Amino acid sequence: MQGGLEKNLPKRAIVLDAAALILGFTEIEDAVAVTSSKVLEEARDRDARYRALAAREGGLIKVIEPEPAYVSEVREVARRLGEIELSDADVSVIALALQLSRQGWDTCILTSDYSIQNLASRLGLMVKPILHKGIRRMISWEVYCGACGWSGDGKPGNPCPKCGHALKRRPRRESG
Ligand SMILES: [Zn+2]
What we know:
By secondary structure, the chain is α/β, with parallel strands linked by helices. The chain folds into two domains: 10-129, 5'-nuclease (Rossmann fold, 3-Layer(aba) Sandwich), CATH 3.40.50.1010; 141-171, no CATH class. Helices cover 35% and strands 19% of the residues. It has helices at residues 18-22, 37-45, 49-57, 68-81, 88-102, 114-122, and strands at 12-16, 32-35, 61-63, 106-111, 126-129, 141-145, 151-152, 167-171. It is elongated, with a radius of gyration of 19 Å. It binds zinc ion. Zinc ion binds next to loops.
């Protein structure tokens, strides 16, 4: 396992979200598994205490906090795409991957979350979906009214400008 080749391998990092942690993705060859402390907290809340902590204590997963500049950048892109349901932990996963990628790491996010996949794709980050197949194309959200059919610029939950019903959102259909 040890040899002179090792130093020539690219630096590879797999960034885990809470679902990946809970599922116990710790056996990753030729790559460093990393996550943020917010993800660990979220995993603990979902009662993955054993795996998350065991992995961390075993040194299998490195906990790295993304720098604030990357967090801001991800939040800004999320806002523009209407990805308003991302948790702090989700944002930290993407920010961490963005940071490592800019620092020259070959980076991949392991996640089951569509919003994370969508945003990561927009940022040019590699994503490995777990539990289900990845999104076929990138999603933009469209805000619409389920009562009168209005759609346009608005915020989900706000009243429809035509009829006052609460607005919802759906993936925008892209041609092709
Ligand atoms: Zn309406």
